[in-house]
Fold:
Amino acid sequence: MLIIMTPGASKKEIDNVKLFVERKGFDAHPIYGEIQTVIGAVGGKVIDPREIELLDGVKEVIRITSSYKLASRVFQPQDTVITVNGVKFGGEHLGLIAGPCTVESYEQMDKTAIALKKSNVKILRGGAFKPRTSPYAFQGLGEEGLEIIRAVADKHKMAVTSEIMEISQIPLFEKHVDIFQVGARNMQNFNLLKELGQIRKPIMIKRGLAATFEELLMSAEYVLSGGNKEVMLCERGIRTFERVTRNTLDLSAIPVIKKVSHLPILIDPSHGTGLRDKVAPMSRASVAAGCDGLIIEVHYDPDNAICDGAQSLYPAQYDKLYHDIKKIAPIVDKKVI
Amino acid sequence: MLIIMTPGASKKEIDNVKLFVERKGFDAHPIYGEIQTVIGAVGGKVIDPREIELLDGVKEVIRITSSYKLASRVFQPQDTVITVNGVKFGGEHLGLIAGPCTVESYEQMDKTAIALKKSNVKILRGGAFKPRTSPYAFQGLGEEGLEIIRAVADKHKMAVTSEIMEISQIPLFEKHVDIFQVGARNMQNFNLLKELGQIRKPIMIKRGLAATFEELLMSAEYVLSGGNKEVMLCERGIRTFERVTRNTLDLSAIPVIKKVSHLPILIDPSHGTGLRDKVAPMSRASVAAGCDGLIIEVHYDPDNAICDGAQSLYPAQYDKLYHDIKKIAPIVDKKVI
Amino acid sequence: MLIIMTPGASKKEIDNVKLFVERKGFDAHPIYGEIQTVIGAVGGKVIDPREIELLDGVKEVIRITSSYKLASRVFQPQDTVITVNGVKFGGEHLGLIAGPCTVESYEQMDKTAIALKKSNVKILRGGAFKPRTSPYAFQGLGEEGLEIIRAVADKHKMAVTSEIMEISQIPLFEKHVDIFQVGARNMQNFNLLKELGQIRKPIMIKRGLAATFEELLMSAEYVLSGGNKEVMLCERGIRTFERVTRNTLDLSAIPVIKKVSHLPILIDPSHGTGLRDKVAPMSRASVAAGCDGLIIEVHYDPDNAICDGAQSLYPAQYDKLYHDIKKIAPIVDKKVI
Amino acid sequence: MLIIMTPGASKKEIDNVKLFVERKGFDAHPIYGEIQTVIGAVGGKVIDPREIELLDGVKEVIRITSSYKLASRVFQPQDTVITVNGVKFGGEHLGLIAGPCTVESYEQMDKTAIALKKSNVKILRGGAFKPRTSPYAFQGLGEEGLEIIRAVADKHKMAVTSEIMEISQIPLFEKHVDIFQVGARNMQNFNLLKELGQIRKPIMIKRGLAATFEELLMSAEYVLSGGNKEVMLCERGIRTFERVTRNTLDLSAIPVIKKVSHLPILIDPSHGTGLRDKVAPMSRASVAAGCDGLIIEVHYDPDNAICDGAQSLYPAQYDKLYHDIKKIAPIVDKKVI
Structure:
């Protein structure tokens, strides 16, 4: 912890701060600068830095220990690589996930899966429990939805990813789902994260609408510290003042996360932009920036989708995009199956 | 729904849009302006406006039905007034809640309650389950914490408010707590909100860090539509680029919410600023703007608080603030007990 | 400057950083913590901290000198009080400014001034040069506008404040205006600020839509360092994701600025909210939080105002507000004339 | 203009609104929906929508005319292509600009230009007048800086781009500079923009830190409406709550701007991220998303740069990036020289 005194701080004020932190169990190391004094406080228990900020003569207190450990590249220098149904995320691999926003019916999932199979999709997405801002909006097919996506995936030899919203849904997801998604609104549902630390299937955590990268990594730490090592992160757009796009997709997530963490970083360009014609450009951009995976909404008939059809690609658009991705990936030393 | 065509849209494009919405069950009413055509679409089922935005010649689609109903002042013109232990929130009343961030021990709660009683506090706050960014931080005393706050409150004839984090905690809260708080991070934990609609005790919903007022009201709607009419809203600061304050406390919440909704709007100046010396000015400001209540962190000994001591008032500071509030409230036609 | 090494940094990396900063003229003071090493770098010339951040083993670099000096309360502990036409801003004084958004005609200004005089207004506001997002919008009456507001103010023994947009307008403003306003969009027009440092009339600098408090104070520093000591700051709302209000008025500006600076802090509730019915509540809130002044839009006939009529008060509303302000101010130890 | 009434609005309120807009010269076209009434107001003069929002029974008013015309793709369907020294921006072309943040000396510019020439750079960037937050920071070499960059560019047959801060600098820039840059802080310096409409050289306008895409296009409209048709737009990062990156580079600017406007959209990944190791990934991403140009900071010796060395590439890094760009561009149907 570093305590920065104001330029005019008196000797008495400096001594008082030293005394305060020493009583809390820290060793105090003052550095007397030309203008200001800084006190390094080493050892000691966890303390709220604001307690010290309220002492006279203190300008600012800075904590120097980053709060995530297991998620950090310092803890594990080599990339985590997660494999699901032959698809790899992380390291030199770029994995692809596709499917509709919502499971609507067996027919809809089957037709979509048939179309996606031609583009070599091996992991199918589809929501069964939907977080909706309005209580009057369609809330998903629930358990039946999970059964449908599982059956269709099995038929086409695909794996399944779907969003979990509640601790009580865990047994159901264990049965039907291969990758558990934690949505942006649940990124800091700490009770849920703790329980997911007990699971032995991959967890994909989406960045909250106003979450920092550090907070996203802290949420990963909740799962990792429970013993589940297979965590992927997903950028899906943050909330800003801009109104044309639904969210602002922050692609700097890719180089930032890859520098500080060993966990795979995926991009969701569908929620990140909210409009179909922005999905392909932002997907290509993600690949060129070096992302470890993409999760893209595709529907066999977007015009009649129950939900988010406007941000879903047509199968032919996905196929074109898949071929572009295959061309861009090797330029950034990434493999796509 | 209003469909705004681009200035250069052709007759064919306009007709195509009309056809599209008519097939979805809407009546189409075009208005031909000098520069642009607008099509009003009336009736029809719920539709994602972005589906139409992707049609050729469409500039923008605007939904005109506000999505909350029961929370709206149109639905209920007169103010909702909620009474807890003789304290009233809403209408001409301003209610006060005070207490520490976290329940630490019986002694800490008792000493704090004794101090607060002198300032006429009748509702005691204190967290037992704490949402913490880090899995390594203190997570609260849990059930024991709720038992302590209940016992202390009973001793001093006070009511209790505390934050609920999980559906499974509901029976425990029913037993010990008079006002259920839903924290900012859980504002869109829709499963929890649905369950709280079944409770018959007041629910205080805090605005999420990046939530709009409309979304806050939609979350209230989840509880109201379950049958629980006693919902209060609470502004506790939003996340912006400013770094000096922990959050940006948005006091425009007060006139905005009071115009569109009948629900009481409270302010939490402690989390909203994060520093003790900002709490009194922002509390007075909230009262002068016409808020229906305040929830303020006070600790009998903030310097030794486990959590958030830096934003907790000393009892003497709270007492001074209480007397200022008593002077300001009548100027805005509010009563404080 | 404080250089925080990553937890796993090697001795070689630490030595390399020491060498690097010593070559730049700094003395290096390492503090060896349990987990991490921190190097304090004292003396030396100005250096971009990111240069060091790119060295191996460095986690973060923190500059410890705050960049404003003359604006700081460390430099001048007592409040700056600025007096214009008998109205005082700062210290124990709260000053009021009122008038229309834009000067439209002699008649409009005169009728407004007559109405405001009854509420004891002594400083008249009104824009002559208007910063408009669109080149096709009304850009103000220009020089003629300044002549009108000056003539009306002289007739009613009032002072004048108006917004300056360009260095070349300075001679004109010197002739007609008593307080020069620098608008939010020009807060970082550094060339203009430098020139205003040469003026000997008060300058009111409005916070930019995405400016931090520190940046606002740095802009004040440009004027102060030119020799002009009469600078007031003005909060007028920042841009956030919220869409109901035009901007988010950040009233924490008041306790924050008053703590770190001796300069008066004013609030503009008209631009800060953008809607008439929010102006009175937010004005009262500003006074209760301890602001040094308010600048409020009032028009004798808002329904027919050319510009921003929707956020202008009717004279009777201003008079009611004035009387509320007179009641609240003494509670926070402020005097209003 | 569309006036959306509240669900409970009475017939009297609706009639009153109709009367109000008709008196302002509009034709009123009500659409009676099941829940709400909407009034389309056609014709009439410009009016502040908030005036109507304050009438009883009005929920919201929406303006339907986009405020930029000349910048719109409706006005000019085909892409604007701007050519400078053989480099093309727009249409099927991707142009590259490189050079140091600041002109420091003849030697520094010459060495940098020699290095860049090997990577086929034909437009050299370098600041002579620097907008600095602090009045105490290095403000650039001024006129001497422009003379140096011009001399070096001439020697190596390159063109010059540099940032203009003030109307009075225009003659100097006309003499030495081929592309005038308007910085983010000056994006709404409307007086400057108007004057640049009179120039006959390309203008590059950078998006402000909190500016919407619509506002950026409105600023372009100021220049276009003055008669200068050669305007390029540049995304350089917006300000958000995230603190790891200096700004959040919003690459959705590319598909958004290309849809609504014919003007070229460039990306500045150096300011957009603020750190050298993020520049290459974000540059590749920009190309893959279809941008029309890149402006990248490169210094022959970044470790000894006066300013922003930390975000400047080494020449070898730029050369590697150039070759990656050459590979990615054809995949999105773009040509790079």
About this structure: Chain D has a mean pLDDT of 92.
